């Protein structure tokens, strides 16, 4: 279920929904931070989806041109632009999926946590508006540090009395995309067949690929497991360093985020076979938030998959225990930030 590319799935001709209707544009998606490095290519990829009737682009600047440009693509969705706080509410009205890539990215030498001070406030403000204008929407948080911004979003939604833990997602799809790519490369596998679950969080050692649980089942030496795990954990930093001050992953991130949007729309549309890894409220471990594979349905998360965390390799068990203190601290930092705000 996890393996299709979003575009291939979405473009199957004559696919009927659970209502027996033709697959057609009907969902509204908003991107907050749409003029940014991730926002622009993400908007382009989403514009290709036949499931979307409206694509609302919001940013604090430069979004008019992005929308004018995209609106010339002859795909179904109508593209609208919204600039600045006064237009945020209108951007969000009636929206089914809100994607949040707003905020500053890393520069060489920075950790994701170094972004906390700026991005925490941005996410808080944006999620308040989501709570006021489209409390039923699926919320996809991309802004880093995801390990903290998702708990912040949860607190904000709780304060507003509209928190639905089944609809709040930290986007960790890029970790899965990277894991699939690197493993397929290393083992000469056909990419389409490869599906590596990635659990934990979205920063450094909190990113834990479960190579023992991947499809197809593949044998790795201890050394290969170690090398692949470390490469997947540091892949973001690989891009930050290669871009040398010009930002972090944007194109692969847009690809991954578009896949997660497409999966969400298929779930909303009644597809009963949609699974993605995401950082969500969770009772699979003793941590309140945790990334793991979830089954998506019309109301958000339909099921967690506890068996994914059973029968781990010794390496994975150790790595899981080792990541918990950092992940716990990042979660608590986010909660504390949101609770001390007026
Ligand atoms: P960017 O700087 O190119 O774009 C960010 C956009 O957000 C800009 O257009 C900016 O105007 C906008 N923005 C800033 N404040 C805003 C506000 N209050 N409301 C609305 N928009 C606002 O940054 P980029 O490369 O697009 O990265 C965005 C975020 O995504 C960063 O926090 C980065 O760390 C994160 N990221 C997350 C990944 C993940 O796997 N979850 C992977 C890569 C990046």
TrEMBL record:
The keyword NAD applies. Keywords: NAD, Oxidoreductase, Tricarboxylic acid cycle. It is an enzyme of class 1 (oxidoreductase). Residues 172-337 form the Lactate/malate dehydrogenase C-terminal domain. The keyword Endoplasmic reticulum does not apply. Its EC number is 1.1.1.37. Residues 28-170 form the Lactate/malate dehydrogenase N-terminal domain. Belongs to the LDH/MDH superfamily. MDH type 1 family. Homodimer. This is malate dehydrogenase. The chain holds residues 68 to 409 of 412 of the full protein.
